[in-house]
Each structure stands twice: as structure tokens, then as C-alpha cells.
Amino acid sequence: MMNNFYNPFGPNACKPVPKPPPEDPLKRKPVFVHNEELDKIAVYFIGNQQRYRENIIIPRALGAGHIKTYEEKMIEKAMESCVFKSIMSYVVGFGLGAALGLFTSSVNPNVAAVEKQQTAREIFAEMKMTTLSYAKNFAVIGFLFSGVECVIETYRGQTDWKNGTYAGGLTGGLIGLRAGVKAGIVGAAGFAAFSTAIDYYMHSRG
Fold first, then answer.
1. CA angle 153, 186, 166 (to 5 degrees)
2. Can you point out the beta strands (E) in the chain?
3. Which of 78, 122, 189, 198 fits a disulfide with 118 by CB distance 3.0 to 4.6 angstroms?
């Protein structure tokens, strides 16, 4: 019974194991028949970059969901930039200042001396000067305030009342510096307080 088992200490223990016959490389079967299979495997592991994801869940708060295109994202990014906000504030400030200046000049026109009566052309010229003066002032204030606030908000990475306060202080100080250092300090303090009050009122109402 023991002869049927291999004895490691027997006479055949030191004989080398016979090597298998060499395989002919021409008779070896290829693993992949065509390159299409390689392409399928590459797509399976790497993934197709052109396909759309089908497992995106968009919450429907108001109406149907909408996936923004690349062009829409670029336009939205441009509209949220500080340059665009500053330019829009300049345009809106110019229009608001022009409307306020026109209203002020029409309600309380400058009355000339008694001996010299103003003509209609002179009255319209003064109204035009007053309107342009208000428009330029409001445009400059809106441009500076919006640009400084956007830069501060981008730097801080937060949206709170401090952005408006800092922007108001810097804007008031820059505008007041034209009349001197003391006027700049007073303008910075006044504009900062005004901006803080407006932000507090807007947030409390919202």
C-alpha cells in the first residue's frame, strides 16, 4: 500500500522534474481577436467623456428642473463679476441721479434777481446742469460702492452686513478726500453708518 505514495527520501527524490515541451508561439491563440474588444474594455474602464450623466437629481421647487448649458454658465459668471456689477451700478446710478436732479430742479428752480427775468432757455440750461451734476455724482458713488463691496466680498468669502459697512467707509472716505482729510474721515463714518443702516433694514425686512 505504501508503494502507491511518493516517498521524498526514496531513490527518485533527487531526479529533476521533467520540463514541459516548449510552446510554439505561432500556435498560441490570441486573447483578443479584434481591436474593437480593446476599445470596448477601454471605454468600460475609462468611461465615455461625451455622454451625459443620467443619475442627476434636480429638485423641483418652482417648475421643472433645468440643467444650465456652458453658455448660460459663462453669461452668469460674467454677470456676477465685479466689473459688470460696477458698470451696472454706474448706469443705474446715472439714471437715478438724473431723475432726482430733474425733479429737484423742477420743484425748486434757481430764481434770478428781480431786475433780470430768466428766459425759458436759461431755466432749461440750469435744469440740465443740475440734472447732469446729480447724475454724475450718483454714478460715481454707485460705481465705487458696488466695485469696492464686490472686491471685499470676494476677498472675505462671506456675504453679510460687514461688506456694506466696509465698502461704505471706503467709498465715503475716497469721495470726501477731495475736500481734505477731515472731510474724508467724516464722509467715511457717515457713509459707513448709512450703509449699515440700509443693510440692517433690508435684512430685517427680508
1. 10
2. none
3. 122
